[in-house]
Amino acid sequence: MTVTAVSLESDILAALDTVADPELDQPITELGFVRSVNIADGGVTVHLRLPTAFCSPNFAYLMASDAYDALRALDGIGEVRVLLDDHHDSDKINEGLAAEAGYVGTFGAEAEESLDELRTTFLRKAHTAAMERCVSVLMRREGLNPNEIHRLTLRDLPDGREKSSLMRRRFALGLSMCPNSKVVVGDDGRPLPAEAVPMRLRFARSVRISMEGNAHFCRGLLATRYDDCGSATLQITNTRTRSSR
Amino acid sequence: MDHAIFQPALLTDFYINGFGQTEEAFGLAQRHPDKLTYNHAYDPRNGELGLEHLRRDAERMKLQGVKLYTAEWHGDSRGYKLDDPWSRRYLEECIELGIRNIHVHKGPTIRPLDRDAFDVADIDKVATDYLELNFIVEHVGLPRLEDFCWIATQESNVYGGLAVAIPFIHTRPRYFAQIIGELLYWIGEDKILFASDYALWTPKWLVEKFVDFQIPEDMLGEYAPITVDQKRKILGLNAAALYDINVPAELRLATPGQDTVDVAAGAKEAVPL
């Protein structure tokens, strides 16, 4: 196998890593939603799978079309085909993606305008959960006084997974990235009065628990449905003979 | 089992004779009125004709409650919202007919696809507009537990039913601890109702597991332990209050307050008085 081929494989996986299940806020690669990647001379075919045949079609479409967009951005990839398997709307979504019909073109009368609002709703949830994780870590590790939380700024957060996750979500929502910005903010990114912070955090905890719980549940359903343990089973086949990209 | 309440689902697009067996269930409840209460099911997309049926059924069956499944497929429709115009007409008819307990099984309401299929905001709207009705939200809004809890803190007539959520007590006890811990905090012990998921399995083990259930020790920092009285309310006393079911003296709570709904800690914080 040539160096180029190896790097194309890792580029493809890296591209798919950037695609998240909006509802669970985890990459589709980690969730085991990528069933197979086939790299051939003409292009690349990716099969996706979900925990049930009746997972919400809007999220299914978002993940499939995000995967398509992420792959299309790769140099020299050739034709990209993303196929969603075993879903009650598989045919509709697969045909829509192949025809580049977009959301409204794919779903016709069942669609109204766009999925932007849906995406924002779940980005907000993801941000809320990430914010709570950052504060919890600080309270656990450094015994932060609950009365001090409203003063916390981004620069007070230790570097690490929790902080970078929070920063990515703030960026995605267009919230301030300034180190002097407050950590605990409303959905609109504005700082809250000190007395409103405990309730915001308590609710944020519920959001985190709910998202984490749903992710556990979906992983369980997927493992049962396909009788495997998720990402370990991602199959990559590479039959590409040409080395140029 | 002291008393059971039917919560039927029709699913007429999926089952030739329906998932719930209306006449058999009603007949059984008639033969054992001390043991069974029959709740009905309707689909507001049946329009005027369905309303007429509901009126007749309410009189014949002396209905106190109905069970709705918002994700039910119906011709081209793949679900409805509780605040759709026809659904509102049915809810208003329920008030007229003395049907006061509206059990809602929130499922994925697909149309339009633009919005979250599991969104529970329609509960908020109808609970505000129809204070005469109690809305018991089955599977406690899962997978939108947080949104359901938030809505329930704002509305005095929103209850949480544990259908579909309670079996996690077996497969994922720590997740169940979080669910029940969140519910107790946000909506409180007076507004949580046991459900058996009888159509899926015999519920004896669920009752026994719940009686024995406790918040795991390492989670006690986040949630208070569940008391015996809280379990009694959830397992039966709360439902008895909603359906005027007579509770034998020895099964009532020693402390008063079983039939008055207390405001949950989270609700007090969330809604400044």
Describe this structure in words.
The complex is a heterodimer of chains A (245) and B (273). By secondary structure, chain A is an alpha/beta fold. Chain A has two domains: 3-21 and 30-114 and 222-238, no CATH class; 116-219, no CATH class. Chain A contains eight helices and six strands. In chain A, the strands form two sheets. Chain A has a four-stranded mixed beta sheet with strand order 5-4-3-6. In chain A, helix 6 packs antiparallel against helix 7. Chain B is an alpha/beta fold and 273 residues long. Classes of the chains: A alpha/beta (245), B alpha/beta (273). Chain A binds chain B through residues 23, 54, 56-58, 61, 103, 107, 110-115, 117-118, 121-122, 125, 198-199, 202-203, 206-207, 209-210, 213-214, 216-217, 220, and chain B through 78, 108, 110-118, 142-146, 149-150, 171-172, 175, 178-179, 182, 185-186, 266, 269-270.
